[in-house]
Specification:
By secondary structure, the protein is an alpha/beta fold. It is built from 20 helices and 19 strands.
């Protein structure tokens, strides 16, 4: 693996250190994250509600708000058309809740992942029209729903599209209003909102218009969950959502939120982190849409009955366990394919397919394949002549553009630069495999496949302490475009042989290089899912290693304390070992 220090301008770091009264390390970290002025640094370190942009800066907002307020005033039934993942279900909750707060009537439709798939379907719109619905609002979907928009227009239904996915070359559907910061002609400053973020902006506009702005912070909690789960950049307005939302999640009033945080064991009163949401809370919300019916999530967050909330939270917890088992089954099949077919090692892209794979977990599996191979990967589930797939990519490869290059193969597709979903007839999977490979060979080089570990600074392991950890907490919440800082320390000494933990992780005990002092503080260092590497490269007590790590804190009452989460490690070079031993 190649270790590369994150680029930054030392002159900017020096200016930030002086003008914003920051430590040299924090100034360096901010400069590497694109912060250039003292004012930007203060906004970054102290996110405030006042930093939210006006929702009316988003193209189409005025028309959308006017139509929805008219529907509320006239007691029209509104249908919210959502999606089955965290982003779509939480966006549904945000708009349903705000409409009902304002005295309106809102129903919702969240598609079944397997039976309906992603996107808006004509039969749902036709059924809504038959029920007397005259206003439909899409959330986290709809930006490519041209046929659905035409159906709505034909049936006399006003359609408001709220979405964040990238529009196609043909533009946006014909609707009463389209809210999407990524559409042509929209000058909204934050282009990286998730679907629930766009829904939040509509809720913000409605609450401000009706003199209920004081209620805006209560919607930040669920917007924060979606923003983290959808892995959008945690900078700018998204950072405000997440920072203030996490603070609010320490004191949840919603019965469903309380039960969910309790079952995830993140309700102990300590400050929640984006990692808590991303690795504990979001997977349980996502499990509903992956394994069963995503409507459960909307019920969880809208029920007033604490008994029912507890039952739904427990159901989501069970579904997450089912999801983990199915993911393990599919990954075992993929690992076998990779081991059995030597030609796959030479490919620039991977399309892994299998019969009767569960469509709800193929996106997670695609991420695992990319982690393992450092290649763009599609994972495809085949069933009765149809194929549904999900893809993930590496930093240098725009996966949505790749699918656009062979758009004729798909029944439907969409997504982002690094995450896509699609459907196509099963017999076209071989053609997809070859067309993707041809496109990848035109746009990638062998250098793109060399794993790269980006680190922020080299520090001495002897300088790792609670003061440093407290300093780094000022940079939270961490996520895309604001990654948790990674440090490199050279020549750490193994205080005990490295060993395997729970058959898949690696655990070490390390100390700083000997410096003549009697006491050397030791640290526990953990490397997730690296047991195979340790088996191939054992590490003995006393060996010197270079470590790349993030700093973490284990709050266990008996054996907690600072610990290192390893991004990578390497045996120290012989020359360095000799220098350290002298």
């Amino acid at each position: 693996m190649r270790w590369t220090q994150r680029a930054f301008e030392s002159s900017i770091a020096s200016r930030l250190q002086q003008e914003a009264a920051l430590s040299p390390l924090i100034a360096t970290l901010l400069a590497a994250r694109g912060i250039r002025t003292s004012e930007e640094a203060q906004q970054f370190l102290n996110p405030k509600l006042e930093a939210l942009h006006s929702p009316y800066a988003m193209h189409g907002m005025q028309a959308a708000v006017d139509r929805l307020l008219a529907a509320i005033a006239n007691q029209e039934q509104v249908l919210i058309y959502g999606d089955y993942d965290v982003d779509g279900t939480t966006a549904t909750v945000i708009l349903k809740t705000v409409i009902e707060i304002l005295g309106g009537r809102a129903d919702f439709h969240v598609p079944h992942r397997v039976l309906e798939g992603y996107g808006m379907r004509d039969e749902v719109i036709e059924r809504a029209a038959a029920d007397g619905i005259r206003l439909i609002i899409s959330v986290d979907t709809g930006i490519r729903a041209f046929a659905a928009a035409e159906t709505a227009s034909r049936l006399g239904i006003d359609l408001i599209v709220t979405d964040h996915h990238l529009p196609g070359a043909e533009g946006v559907p014909k609707a009463l209003a389209v809210l999407n910061p990524n559409q042509s002609g929209c000058d909204y400053p934050c282009k990286a909102l998730c679907g629930a973020g766009v829904a939040f902006k509509m809720a913000q506009a409605l609450l401000e218009k009706t003199d209920r702005a004081r209620m805006i912070p209560s919607f930040l909690k669920i917007a924060a969950i979606a923003t983290i789960a959808d892995a959008v950049p945690l900078v700018g307005e998204n950072r405000v959502f997440v920072s203030l939302g996490l603070e609010g999640l320490r004191r949840p009033m919603n019965a469903g939120l309380r039960e969910l945080l309790g079952i995830c064991r993140v309700d102990g009163g300590r400050p929640l982190t984006a990692q808590d949401i991303g690795f504990r809370v979001a997977p349980r919300i996502n499990a509903a849409g992956r394994m069963d019916v995503a409507r459960d999530v909307v019920e969880l967050f809208t029920t007033k009955d604490p008994v029912r909330a507890k039952a739904v939270a427990e159901h989501l917890h069970k579904l997450n366990g089912d999801r983990q088992e199915e993911e393990a089954r599919i990954m075992a099949a993929i690992e076998k394919q990779l081991a059995d077919d030597a030609s796959l090692k030479d490919r620039y892209s991977l399309v892994m397919d299998g019969a009767e794979w569960h469509r709800g977990v193929i996106g997670i599996c695609a991420s695992r394949v990319v982690e393992r191979t450092n290649r763009p990967a599609l994972v495809v589930a085949r069933h009765e002549g149809e194929a549904h797939g999900s893809g993930r990519s590496i930093k240098t490869f725009h996966l949505l553009n790749a699918l656009e290059s062979c758009a004729e193969l798909f029944s439907r597709f969409g997504g982002h630069a690094h995450a896509v979903g699609f459907a196509l007839p099963e017999d076209r999977v071989p053609a997809l495999r070859e067309k993707l490979e041809a496109y990848a060979r035109q746009h990638l080089t062998a250098e793109d496949f060399v794993p790269e570990m980006i680190y922020d600074a080299e520090i001495s392991l002897g300088d790792v302490n609670e003061k440093l950890y407290a300093m780094l907490q000022k940079l939270e919440p961490f996520g895309m475009n604001n990654p948790q800082p990674v440090f490199v320390s050279r020549g750490a000494r193994l205080a005990a042989p490295a060993k395997t933990l729970k058959e898949k992780h690696v655990k070490m005990r390390v100390t700083p290089p000997a410096n003549g002092t009697k006491y050397q503080r030791s640290f526990e260092a953990l490397a997730w899912r690296q047991s195979g590497r340790l088996a191939a490269e054992p590490l003995a007590m006393g060996e010197l290693v270079d470590l790349a790590f993030c700093l973490d804190y284990n709050d266990h009452p008996e054996f907690g304390g600072l610990q290192l989460i390893l991004s990578d490690w390497a045996k120290a070079a012989p020359a360095a070992c000799a220098a350290i031993s002298r």
